[in-house]
Design a protein that fits this description.
The chain is mostly beta strands.
């Protein structure tokens, strides 16, 4: 399964294979890991990776989870595609608004050009991610200041797509 995860404010692309409950195969930002795993108790997990024993404590939080590892706490939010697109489109409405890619994908259509007057919820471009096409919409009335991508271009999570002013 593929996820976009925010860990302590940084976006991370995560792909996990849960075929064997005692072993997890994970790809984190392109790097592959194989871990032996065990649930110790609800919210406490043990992993063995590269001859290292790792204990994780996961506590639900207001937005996501707090994950404790080796005495360090990390705020973690797992974002599905639709939630990520919504957040990317609606973070702040005053002044310039940067719309960023919520996950890796491909720009399949640019609907508007820089300098175009745009209404709130009007489509600016179409991005394909995980075999789904999602229209990236303006979060406010304004002017498209910049289109930072082209049709057919690949984007990574967090890449700038467009700016609306």
């Amino acid at each position: 399964m593929k996820y976009t995860v925010t860990v302590s404010g940084q976006r991370v692309d995560l792909e996990i294979d849960f075929n064997d409950p005692r072993k997890i195969e994970a790809q984190v930002s392109g790097r592959k890991y194989v871990l032996d795993s065990k649930t110790v108790e609800p919210g406490v997990y043990w992993f063995n990776w590269d001859s290292r024993s790792i204990e994780l404590r996961v506590t639900p939080a207001l937005e996501g989870y707090i994950v404790s590892v080796d005495g360090h706490q990390h705020a973690v939010e797992i974002v599905d595609t639709r939630t990520a697109l919504r957040k990317a489109a609606h973070h702040g409405h005053d002044g310039e608004v940067e719309l960023r890619a919520p996950m890796p994908g491909k720009i399949v259509k640019v609907l508007l050009q820089a300098g175009t007057v745009v209404s709130a919820n009007q489509g600016i471009l179409v991005m394909e991610a995980m075999k789904m096409q999602n229209e990236i919409k303006s979060p406010k009335d304004g002017v498209v200041k910049r289109i930072a991508v082209q049709e057919g271009s690949a984007v990574n999570s967090g890449d700038l797509l467009t700016i609306v002013e």
